[in-house]
Amino acid sequence: MKRLHVHVAVDDLDRSVAFYANLFAAAPTVLKPDYAKWMLDDPTVNFAISARGGKAGVEHLGIQVEDASELAEVYARLDKADAPVVEEGATTCCYAKSEKSWITDPQGVVWETFLTQGEATTYGTSATIDALTAKTACGCA
């Protein structure tokens, strides 16, 4: 089963956690000082927020898969899209270890496709998402 992923940058994590916990009628499944995530089944979504100094608003969208065959299927779809695919490979991001690639749609919306392979003790970094969001913010995409 594939799951839609939405990541929103927020200015006030505590206030946003309270808002989304009420909206989803659920506590976050992951809660860190700078990050929260809900793995919801209704609707089926991986919804994450973070307060890490970025511009508030939708940071990126994505498709999370459950296994390597689904990842290969989604990667094949990316190859057919009329945009360059940035293969990040194995990475640590959002307190998780993942295999991922990135693409930007014609409007400059950044999308990731990923398979989570386990938890991580740090948020991690992603030069790829930083570069892609910087390009879209300046209209360079």
TrEMBL record:
Pfam families with a match to the protein in the record: Glyoxalase
InterPro entries, per the entry: ArsI/CadI-like (IPR049789), Cadmium-induced_rsp (IPR052393), Glyas_Bleomycin-R_OHBP_Dase (IPR029068), Glyas_Fos-R_dOase_dom (IPR004360), VOC_core (IPR037523)
Entry superkingdom: Bacteria
PROSITE patterns: VOC
Residues annotated as domain VOC: 2-116
Protein name, per record: Glyoxalase
Organism per entry: Sphingomonas psychrolutea
